[in-house]
Give the backbone structure.
Amino acid sequence: TKESTYTLVEKAAQKAAERAGNPSPHIVSFVATEAEAGFNNAKTNVGDYLQGEGLPKQLDKED
């Protein structure tokens, strides 16, 4: 999933940059870095949830 997502995001960034008249490799690199950060954040959030952090409606029970 990661590799296909990176490929799609990078291609989309390349096309957008070309259409905007600014085909910079820095844009593609930045987008790839941010996609990786998104996967890492998702992994952390799922791990936190499985460890009992951030359970839905947990604060509602403390009333």
User: Anything to note?
Assistant: The longest helix spans residues 25-50. Helices lie at 2-19, 25-50. The chain has two helices and no strands. The mean pLDDT is 83.
